[in-house]
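User: hey, got a sec? need GNAT family N-acetyltransferase folded
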Amino acid sequence: MGDHGIELIERFPDVDDYCRLRVAAGMTPKTREAATRGLPNTLYGVSLVRDGQVVGMGRIIGDNGTVFTVADIAVVPALQGRGLGRRILVALDAWLRANVPESAYVTLIADGDAKFLYAKFGFVDSAPASINMEYMMLAGGRRSTDAG
Ligand SMILES: CC(C)(COP(=O)(O)OP(=O)(O)OC[C@H]1O[C@@H](n2cnc3c(N)ncnc32)[C@H](O)[C@@H]1OP(=O)(O)O)[C@@H](O)C(=O)NCCC(=O)NCCS
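Assistant: Yep! Here you go:
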């Protein structure tokens, strides 16, 4: 058991908790179909649990050899700003250090002030040499460039 009675578990949330937490943290919603397909492909993931309720999450996805991506980092708003995001990153960073082979690329997309958290774990801004390019898939193959 860690700070504030919040436990870090080395298991990523299930589909229900994942979808709920993304919305609670102000991130773009994922459909149940997308989450059901995607979550089993998690390489390593953690949950923060308080009183049996998932209140934070983070995971690593990728091909497990050449590219690793830190994704879905979220803490419920009521508990933000008290070091829980850091606890998630400490766990992911330990896994990355132990499991990522030399020459592999470790990447993430930082929203807003989360960049300050990631910078503490060695991530640097890729621009202007490289920029992130993206769209979000909508129904019927249409695309949104407001992928947030
Ligand atoms: C991003 C998020 C996970 C961070 O979680 P958190 O529990 O609030 O973060 P922490 O309290 O652990 O603070 C993270 C660190 O960033 C630092 N930080 C945060 N905002 C900062 C700012 N504007 N300037 C400088 N440092 C800042 C904090 O000082 C802290 O550093 P420290 O551990 O050395 O004190 C959380 O705010 C969240 O869920 N946001 C909504 C969802 C989201 O945007 N996720 C990220 C997607 S990329």
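Quick note: The chain has one domain: 3-144. Let me know if you need anything else on GNAT family N-acetyltransferase.
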